[in-house]
Amino acid sequence: MTDELRGWKEIASHLGTSERTAQRWEHVYQLPVRRAGQTRGASVFALRGDLDRWRLSPEGVRASSENGDAAPTTDAREESAAPSRTRFRVALVAAIIGVAVLCVLVFAWAILSQTPASVRSFAPPAPAREGFAVPASSAVFVLQVTTPQDTPFVFRVIDGGMATLEVRGVRKIGLVPAKSGARATLAVYDMKAQRGGESLKELKTSSLPLRTPVHVELPGTTMDIEWLEMAQFSVVPARGVDAPPLRCCIICGPIVACAVQVTASCGSCCGFEGCRKPK
């Protein structure tokens, strides 16, 4: 067997590495390779003895210690780094999505925590043949509504039910008080007649403090609403959403006021089974 190795293939085979790694070892670790000429493309050769002695030298030991017997080539390093980059990108995208979801949840929690439970859970009563079916509840709001004509109306409205106040020829509004714990809210609806019933449009929902008048100003209508107390009716008949509403109405000049029970200086009425009729 000749002592001379010709070309990078034989040199790399003798060293047990790739041609590119052998070429790099020549530049970095002084691998003893000889050339047949001075030109760049001249053929290379090496002597087995020179290579074996180089392996035992400090440069050869350092070269062989790279990643085991031989250092990975540039291609190998890039290939090994590709999965790491992919995993990093996936992890980064997942982290961004997680942060976005967390921000949405925190934002939603902040809004809900500032909103009274009665507002979050309240849904307007389903339209019935004459407006609304009264919810099956025995908790009753006692509201005093004062109009610009200084006509005070006292409404008794079941929690979550609706009272209406109509200025004939101008507009009709619905008032829906709702209670949760010690807090209450008042939703104001615009009501318009349409075929088969009335359309509803929520205008505003505001806090309703106890015994503190709340001023409501709408185009064509202004009023002060005060929550006086909570009453309790002992008899609350079950009502379906298609049943006629439990209400009565009184007329005071241009104003028509309707609720479960209404009392004013011009008259009173009670349309609820279980409430005492005014004297």
Report the portion of residues in β strands. Answer: 35-45%
pLDDT average, as an integer?
A: 76
Strand element count:
17
Series of H and E elements: EHHEEHHHHEEEEEEEEEEEEEE
Give the low-pLDDT segments.
67-76, 115-134
Q: Would you tell me the structural class of the helices and strands? A: alpha+beta
Q: How many H/I helical runs? A: 6
Sheet with the most strands: spatial strand order:
12-13-6-7-16-17
Count of structural domains: 2
**Taking Cα atoms only, what radius of gyration do you get, to the nearest Å?**
44 Å
Helix content: 25-40%
How would you portray this structure in words?
By secondary structure, the protein is α+β, with helices and mostly antiparallel strands. The chain has 2 domains: 4-71, Orthogonal Bundle (Multidrug-efflux Transporter Regulator, Chain: A, Domain 2); 124-270, no CATH class. Helix content is 29%, strand content 36%. The protein starts with a strand and ends in a 9-residue tail after the last strand.
Write a brief structural summary.
This protein has 279 residues and is an alpha+beta fold.
